[in-house]
Amino acid sequence: MGILNLNDDYFFSIKRKRPEELYESVLEYFKDETLSRYAKSKSIMRTQRKITLRALEILELKKNNCLILDAGCGPGFVGIYLNELGHKTIALDIIFNFLKFYDIRDLYPILSDMCYPPFQPNMFDAIISISALQWIYKDLNQGKKRLDLIDLFKSFYTILKPGGKSIFQFYPKNKAIMDDIGLIIARNTKFKGNFFIDNPNNPKKRKIYLILKKE
Q: For residue 192, which phi and psi values (nearest 5 degrees)?
Protein backbone atom coordinates (compact mmCIF):
# COMPACT_ATOMS: atom_id res chain seq x y z
CA MET A 1 0.00 0.00 0.00
CA GLY A 2 1.16 3.53 -0.67
CA ILE A 3 -0.17 7.05 -0.35
CA LEU A 4 0.51 9.46 -3.18
CA ASN A 5 0.73 13.19 -2.64
CA LEU A 6 0.27 15.21 -5.79
CA ASN A 7 3.77 16.67 -5.58
CA ASP A 8 5.54 13.31 -5.24
CA ASP A 9 8.07 12.15 -7.83
CA TYR A 10 6.09 8.99 -8.51
CA PHE A 11 5.48 8.52 -12.25
CA PHE A 12 3.73 6.08 -14.56
CA SER A 13 2.31 6.13 -18.08
CA ILE A 14 0.39 3.31 -19.76
CA LYS A 15 1.26 2.96 -23.45
CA ARG A 16 -1.32 0.43 -24.62
CA LYS A 17 -4.67 1.71 -25.83
CA ARG A 18 -7.58 0.93 -23.51
CA PRO A 19 -11.33 0.83 -24.25
CA GLU A 20 -11.96 4.34 -22.94
CA GLU A 21 -9.42 5.64 -25.49
CA LEU A 22 -10.72 3.57 -28.39
CA TYR A 23 -14.39 4.47 -27.91
CA GLU A 24 -15.92 7.92 -27.77
CA SER A 25 -18.10 7.08 -24.78
CA VAL A 26 -18.93 4.32 -22.34
CA LEU A 27 -22.29 3.93 -24.10
CA GLU A 28 -20.56 2.93 -27.32
CA TYR A 29 -18.37 0.33 -25.62
CA PHE A 30 -20.78 -1.40 -23.24
CA LYS A 31 -23.44 -2.84 -25.50
CA ASP A 32 -24.52 -6.19 -26.91
CA GLU A 33 -21.98 -8.99 -26.32
CA THR A 34 -19.47 -6.76 -24.53
CA LEU A 35 -22.05 -5.69 -21.96
CA SER A 36 -23.35 -9.24 -21.48
CA ARG A 37 -19.87 -10.70 -21.12
CA TYR A 38 -18.94 -8.08 -18.52
CA ALA A 39 -22.15 -8.53 -16.53
CA LYS A 40 -21.81 -12.31 -16.47
CA SER A 41 -18.13 -12.37 -15.53
CA LYS A 42 -17.52 -14.06 -12.17
CA SER A 43 -13.93 -12.80 -12.30
CA ILE A 44 -15.04 -9.16 -12.60
CA MET A 45 -17.55 -9.72 -9.80
CA ARG A 46 -14.84 -11.09 -7.50
CA THR A 47 -12.43 -8.29 -8.39
CA GLN A 48 -15.02 -5.59 -7.75
CA ARG A 49 -15.88 -7.11 -4.37
CA LYS A 50 -12.20 -7.04 -3.37
CA ILE A 51 -11.90 -3.45 -4.56
CA THR A 52 -15.05 -2.54 -2.63
CA LEU A 53 -13.64 -4.00 0.58
CA ARG A 54 -10.46 -1.99 0.09
CA ALA A 55 -12.50 1.15 -0.64
CA LEU A 56 -14.41 0.65 2.61
CA GLU A 57 -11.11 0.31 4.50
CA ILE A 58 -9.98 3.65 3.11
CA LEU A 59 -13.35 5.31 3.75
CA GLU A 60 -13.33 4.33 7.45
CA LEU A 61 -17.08 4.77 7.81
CA LYS A 62 -18.16 5.27 11.41
CA LYS A 63 -21.34 3.19 11.14
CA ASN A 64 -22.35 0.04 9.31
CA ASN A 65 -25.75 1.11 7.98
CA CYS A 66 -24.79 4.06 5.79
CA LEU A 67 -26.72 5.37 2.83
CA ILE A 68 -24.28 4.96 -0.06
CA LEU A 69 -24.46 5.98 -3.70
CA ASP A 70 -22.90 3.45 -6.09
CA ALA A 71 -21.99 5.84 -8.93
CA GLY A 72 -21.42 4.18 -12.28
CA CYS A 73 -22.74 0.92 -10.85
CA GLY A 74 -22.73 -1.22 -14.00
CA PRO A 75 -24.68 -4.45 -13.36
CA GLY A 76 -24.70 -3.77 -9.60
CA PHE A 77 -21.86 -5.91 -8.25
CA VAL A 78 -20.70 -3.25 -5.79
CA GLY A 79 -24.15 -2.20 -4.59
CA ILE A 80 -25.30 -5.78 -4.02
CA TYR A 81 -22.20 -6.42 -1.92
CA LEU A 82 -22.64 -3.20 0.06
CA ASN A 83 -26.20 -4.21 0.91
CA GLU A 84 -24.97 -7.64 2.02
CA LEU A 85 -22.62 -5.83 4.40
CA GLY A 86 -25.54 -3.95 5.98
CA HIS A 87 -25.56 -0.66 4.10
CA LYS A 88 -28.42 0.82 2.09
CA THR A 89 -27.32 1.48 -1.47
CA ILE A 90 -28.70 3.44 -4.39
CA ALA A 91 -27.33 2.37 -7.77
CA LEU A 92 -26.83 4.87 -10.58
CA ASP A 93 -25.62 4.28 -14.12
CA ILE A 94 -25.99 5.83 -17.56
CA ILE A 95 -26.43 2.45 -19.28
CA PHE A 96 -30.01 1.19 -19.11
CA ASN A 97 -29.16 -2.41 -20.05
CA PHE A 98 -26.80 -2.69 -17.07
CA LEU A 99 -29.54 -1.62 -14.69
CA LYS A 100 -31.94 -4.26 -15.97
CA PHE A 101 -29.46 -7.12 -16.42
CA TYR A 102 -30.08 -8.44 -12.90
CA ASP A 103 -32.95 -7.84 -10.51
CA ILE A 104 -31.48 -4.99 -8.46
CA ARG A 105 -34.70 -3.40 -7.25
CA ASP A 106 -33.25 -3.41 -3.72
CA LEU A 107 -30.69 -0.90 -5.01
CA TYR A 108 -33.36 1.53 -6.26
CA PRO A 109 -31.60 1.77 -9.66
CA ILE A 110 -31.55 5.19 -11.31
CA LEU A 111 -30.70 5.88 -14.95
CA SER A 112 -28.54 9.00 -14.97
CA ASP A 113 -25.18 10.46 -15.88
CA MET A 114 -23.05 10.36 -12.71
CA CYS A 115 -21.76 13.85 -13.51
CA TYR A 116 -25.27 15.17 -12.94
CA PRO A 117 -26.80 13.02 -10.16
CA PRO A 118 -30.49 13.80 -9.49
CA PHE A 119 -30.41 13.96 -5.69
CA GLN A 120 -31.14 16.42 -2.92
CA PRO A 121 -28.28 18.13 -1.02
CA ASN A 122 -26.79 16.45 2.06
CA MET A 123 -28.31 13.06 1.25
CA PHE A 124 -25.54 10.44 1.27
CA ASP A 125 -23.14 9.26 3.97
CA ALA A 126 -20.75 8.09 1.25
CA ILE A 127 -20.32 7.72 -2.49
CA ILE A 128 -18.41 4.81 -4.02
CA SER A 129 -17.43 4.71 -7.67
CA ILE A 130 -15.54 1.68 -8.98
CA SER A 131 -13.84 1.59 -12.39
CA ALA A 132 -15.82 4.48 -13.88
CA LEU A 133 -13.90 7.75 -13.53
CA GLN A 134 -11.48 6.95 -16.39
CA TRP A 135 -14.45 7.03 -18.79
CA ILE A 136 -15.27 10.60 -17.76
CA TYR A 137 -11.77 12.06 -17.81
CA LYS A 138 -9.21 10.26 -19.96
CA ASP A 139 -7.31 13.01 -21.80
CA LEU A 140 -5.93 16.36 -20.66
CA ASN A 141 -7.02 18.04 -23.91
CA GLN A 142 -10.75 17.32 -23.70
CA GLY A 143 -12.41 20.59 -22.68
CA LYS A 144 -15.98 19.24 -22.48
CA LYS A 145 -14.86 16.28 -20.37
CA ARG A 146 -13.06 18.66 -18.04
CA LEU A 147 -16.30 20.60 -17.52
CA ASP A 148 -18.15 17.33 -16.88
CA LEU A 149 -15.56 16.39 -14.26
CA ILE A 150 -15.92 19.75 -12.53
CA ASP A 151 -19.68 19.25 -12.43
CA LEU A 152 -19.22 15.74 -11.03
CA PHE A 153 -17.08 16.87 -8.11
CA LYS A 154 -19.33 19.85 -7.37
CA SER A 155 -22.41 17.62 -7.47
CA PHE A 156 -20.85 14.98 -5.24
CA TYR A 157 -19.88 17.64 -2.72
CA THR A 158 -23.46 18.91 -2.68
CA ILE A 159 -25.22 15.56 -2.24
CA LEU A 160 -22.87 14.29 0.49
CA LYS A 161 -23.77 14.94 4.11
CA PRO A 162 -21.35 17.13 6.10
CA GLY A 163 -18.46 14.86 7.00
CA GLY A 164 -19.43 12.49 4.18
CA LYS A 165 -16.80 10.88 1.97
CA SER A 166 -16.50 9.90 -1.64
CA ILE A 167 -14.07 7.32 -3.00
CA PHE A 168 -13.16 6.55 -6.59
CA GLN A 169 -11.22 3.52 -7.77
CA PHE A 170 -10.16 4.15 -11.34
CA TYR A 171 -7.53 3.54 -14.01
CA PRO A 172 -5.90 6.80 -15.12
CA LYS A 173 -3.58 6.50 -18.10
CA ASN A 174 -0.77 8.45 -16.45
CA LYS A 175 0.33 10.54 -13.51
CA ALA A 176 -0.38 13.78 -15.38
CA ILE A 177 -4.10 13.01 -15.42
CA MET A 178 -4.04 12.36 -11.67
CA ASP A 179 -2.25 15.65 -11.07
CA ASP A 180 -4.80 17.49 -13.17
CA ILE A 181 -7.72 15.85 -11.36
CA GLY A 182 -6.20 16.99 -8.09
CA LEU A 183 -5.97 20.58 -9.36
CA ILE A 184 -9.55 20.48 -10.62
CA ILE A 185 -10.75 19.40 -7.18
CA ALA A 186 -8.66 22.00 -5.35
CA ARG A 187 -9.78 24.87 -7.59
CA ASN A 188 -13.48 24.03 -7.81
CA THR A 189 -14.55 22.40 -4.54
CA LYS A 190 -13.92 22.44 -0.80
CA PHE A 191 -13.11 18.73 -0.73
CA LYS A 192 -10.10 17.56 1.23
CA GLY A 193 -8.51 14.36 0.04
CA ASN A 194 -5.68 12.30 -1.33
CA PHE A 195 -4.72 9.50 -3.65
CA PHE A 196 -3.98 6.00 -2.39
CA ILE A 197 -2.02 3.61 -4.58
CA ASP A 198 -1.83 -0.10 -3.81
CA ASN A 199 1.15 -1.89 -5.41
CA PRO A 200 2.42 1.34 -7.01
CA ASN A 201 5.36 -0.31 -8.79
CA ASN A 202 3.48 -3.31 -10.17
CA PRO A 203 1.45 -2.25 -13.25
CA LYS A 204 -0.59 -5.47 -13.26
CA LYS A 205 -1.64 -5.20 -9.62
CA ARG A 206 -1.66 -1.42 -9.21
CA LYS A 207 -4.95 -0.01 -7.91
CA ILE A 208 -5.52 3.73 -7.61
CA TYR A 209 -8.06 5.29 -5.24
CA LEU A 210 -9.08 8.90 -4.75
CA ILE A 211 -10.63 9.66 -1.34
CA LEU A 212 -12.44 12.96 -0.78
CA LYS A 213 -14.10 14.30 2.38
CA LYS A 214 -16.70 17.02 2.72
CA GLU A 215 -15.73 19.12 5.71
A: -115, 140
Q: Distances in Å between the alpha carbon of 93 and those of 79, 128, 209?
A: 12, 12, 20
> Please, where are the H alpha helices in the chain?
19-22, 26-29, 32-40, 42-59, 77-84, 96-99, 133-136, 143-159, 175-188
At residue 105, φ and ψ (nearest 5 deg) are -60, -30
pLDDT tens string, the chain, 215 residues long: the values are 333 445 567 888 898 899 999 998 999 999 999 999 999 999 999 999 999 999 999 999 988 899 999 999 999 999 999 999 999 999 999 999 999 999 999 999 999 999 999 999 999 999 999 999 999 998 887 778 899 999 999 999 999 999 999 999 999 999 999 999 999 999 999 999 999 999 988 999 999 999 999 98
* Distance from the Cα of residue 80 to its chain's centroid: 16
Q: Closest by alpha carbon to 133, among 95, 82, 191, 178?
A: 178
Question: Please, what are the domains in the chain?
Answer: 16-213 (3.40.50.150)
* φ/ψ of residue 193, rounded to 5: -175, -170
What's the angle, vertex CA 91, arms to CA 88 and CA 94, rounded to 5? 170
Task: Report the predicted TM-score, pTM, of the whole model to 2 decimal places.
Answer: 0.94
105 CB-contact burial (10 Å; exposed 0-12 / middle 13-18 / buried 19+): exposed
